[in-house]
Q: What sequence folds into this?
């Protein structure tokens, strides 16, 4: 299991992350795209015969009933559970606590505290927006992902590969898996992730950016298993805005590797190598 070295403004702490695609591949345990999203990456799933539903149900109950009470004073556990499930339904989207507050029935300030607790315990990961001298045109709201993709699909009540392939959130769930793989790859190499996303106020977006000495490496994430030219349209547009890109890539749900107009096209299993080949 990976050992993540997490630095905050006040202290350092250690956090164990789920297994990575790299680690599973090294042990010949890597499954298909949809299988990995349903099964997840917790070591126990690969050590003993246990269904993902059974494990994540137990994990969620233990976390909510025991660990959350230690982190924060949650007076209404039911509302806290509702909040987590609503976050799952908004994975990969901009976090709007005011809107969520109305749905949960608590203030946005309270939700902010709950979200910080989820982040501190590494249940969720916030991806912050990219900032450049174009800042006035960029959004400032972070996006949210789940550190364990299997927990995410369990919260969305997805139990089979057939379900995940038909789910309206297919793209978001796939994006979550790729983003978290990038986070794990960074920590596994003793590096800060330095990951952001780009989105302007018109809605134009680049899914993931890694900073290379203030030069952005732009990456689009598509769940499709077959490459089509439209998949790189956003990256091509982003290149017209920035002439100092460190590189550009499309990570998708297929198996083939290619290069199209200077843009690398790679399977999701190559995420770590793509972003951190030099470390």
A:
């Amino acid at each position: 299991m990976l050992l993540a070295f997490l630095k905050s403004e006040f202290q350092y702490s250690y956090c164990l992350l789920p297994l990575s695609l790299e680690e599973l591949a090294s042990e010949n345990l890597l499954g298909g795209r949809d299988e990995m999203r349903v099964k997840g990456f917790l070591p126990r799933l690969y050590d003993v015969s246990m269904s993902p539903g059974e494990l994540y149900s137990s994990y969620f109950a233990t976390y909510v009933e025991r660990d959350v009470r230690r982190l924060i004073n949650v007076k209404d556990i039911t509302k806290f559970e509702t909040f987590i499930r609503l976050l799952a339904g908004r994975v990969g989207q901009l976090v709007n606590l005011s809107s969520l507050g109305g749905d949960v029935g608590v203030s946005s300030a309270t939700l902010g505290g709950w979200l910080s607790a989820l982040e501190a315990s590494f249940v969720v990961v916030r991806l912050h927006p990219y900032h450049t001298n174009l800042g006035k045109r960029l959004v400032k709201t972070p996006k949210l992902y789940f550190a364990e993709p299997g927990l995410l699909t369990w919260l969305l009540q997805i139990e089979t590969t057939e379900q995940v392939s038909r789910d309206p959130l297919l793209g978001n769930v796939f994006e979550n898996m790729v983003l978290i793989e990038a986070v794990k790859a960074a920590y596994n190499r003793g590096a800060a992730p330095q990951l952001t996303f780009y989105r302007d106020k018109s809605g134009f977006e680049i899914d993931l950016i890694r900073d290379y000495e203030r030069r952005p490496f732009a990456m689009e994430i598509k769940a499709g298993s077959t490459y089509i030219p439209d998949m790189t349209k956003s990256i091509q547009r982003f290149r017209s805005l920035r002439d100092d890109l460190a590189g550009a890539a499309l990570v998708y749900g297929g198996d083939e590797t290619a290069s199209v107009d200077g843009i690398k096209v790679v399977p999701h299993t190559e995420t770590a190598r793509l972003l951190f080949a030099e470390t």
Notes: The beta strands are 2-7, 12-17, 124-127, 143-146, 195-199, 205-212, 215-222, 247-252, 258-260, 263-267. DSSP finds twelve helices and ten strands in the chain. Residues 52-71 form the longest helix (20 residues).
